[in-house]
Amino acid sequence: MNLTPIIVKSICILAFLVCVASPAQAQLYATSQSATIPESEISTISIDGKDTTVLRRSWSGKNQFGLMVIVPGSEDHKQNAGLIGYLRHQLNPKGWATLKLMPPAGLYRPNFATPSEEIVKEGQSQITLPAHQAVPKFNSEQLLEIRNFQQSSLTETLAKLADIGKPYPGARVLIAMDDSAAMVTHLLYEQKIPMPDLLVLINPYREHEHLVDKANQRKSVSEELVMMSVPTLDIYSADAHPLAIKTAQMRKQYNQIKPNKYYRQYFVHLSLTNEGGWEEVLDRIEGFARVVIGR
To answer: Which residues contact 23 (CB under 8 A, 6 or more apart)?
Structure first.
C-alpha cells in the first residue's frame, strides 16, 4: 500500500490547523502536556496591553456553590497538567466553577547582578568567572523590579475576572500555589485585591526576600496571615520548596490562635507529582470549603 498520499494529506491538514489557530491556542498547544484544551474553555483578557489566557470551566452536577480561582506558581507553565489541571477539572463535579490564570511570570528570572561595563557586546564571547570566584547575588533593584511587575500584573488580572465570573454566582475561593501563594497573601494583606470567602495556600514561600533592602522587605507570610480574618487553608507537602517546609511551623504557630474555621494547616504525605497527592489536596479543599461556606 502506498502511504505517501496519506502522509502528504496529513501534513497539509496539520499545517492548515497551525495557520488558523489563534495565538492563544498556539500557546496552549505548545505548553499543554495533556489533552488539547477545548476552545470553549479559553477566555482572553488584556493585561498591561497584552492578551493573556484564562481557562474556565463551569460547575457540573446539581450543586452550584460558586467560583474557585486558581493561581499557579510562577514556574508552572503546564496549562492542563499536574495538580493545577487536576483541580481545574475535579472541582467542577463538586459544585464549583473554576478559573485558572496564567502564572504571574516577571520581566525575566534574575540570576545575578552584572555591571553594565561587563555586558556582552554582539560578537564577543560570553562572560566567564574564575573558578575561585562565587557567582554574584541578585541586587535589590532587580528583585524589586520583578516583584512590582508581578504584583501589578496579578492585581490587574484578578480585577478583570469579574466579568468572566458573572455566570457563576455564589462563594469566591482563591487557590494559590508556591511563590504565587505568598504574593497573593501580600496583596490581600495590602488590600489590593478583593478578599475571597476562602483562601487556599499550597506550599507558600517567599524567595530572596533577605536580598531586598530592609526598607522594602515585606512581612513574612505568617505575620501577614495572622493580621487577616479570611478563612485560610494552609496545605504543604513533603516535596514542597524547602522554604515552604521551613516556614510551615511558623505559619501554624502564628495562626493557631484563630478559631479552627479560620485557619487549618494540613501536611500532605504523598508527593504532589502524583495523583494520590492531588486527590488528598482536593479532599482537603472540598471539606474545608463546606465548613466555611456552610453547605
So the answer is: 51
Long-range contacts of 255-264 (CB under 8 A, 24+ apart): 255/222, 255/225, 255/226, 257/226, 258/226, 261/231, 261/291, 261/292, 262/229, 262/230, 262/231, 262/232, 263/225, 263/231, 263/232, 263/234, 264/232, 264/233, 264/234, 264/288
Name the pLDDT band for 15 (thresholds 50, 70, 90): very low
φ, ψ of residue 66 in degrees (nearest 5): 150, -145
The one-letter amino acid code at 253 reads Q
DSSP state string for 179-241: HHHHHHHHHHHTT-SPPPSEEEEES----SGGGS-GGGPPPPHHHHHHT--S-EEEEEETTS-
R_g of the chain computed on alpha carbons? 22
- The three-state secondary structure class of 14 is helix
Q: Closest Cα partner for 146 from 224, 204, 202, 216?
A: 216
Give burial (CB, 10 Å; 0-12/13-18/19+) of 46.
exposed
pLDDT digits (tens, 9 = 90+) for 217-230: 778 999 999 999 99
* 144 — pLDDT class (breaks 50, 70, 90): confident
Phi first, then psi, for residue 152 (nearest 5°) are -65, -45
Q: Nearest-CA neighbor of 65 among 263, 200, 197, 233?
A: 197
Do residues 203 and 240 touch, judged by C-beta distance below 8 A?
yes
Grid cell listed for 225: 496571615
Give the helix/strand (H/E) hosting 46. strand 42-47
Q: How far is CA 8 from CA 2, 12, 140, in A?
A: 11, 6, 55
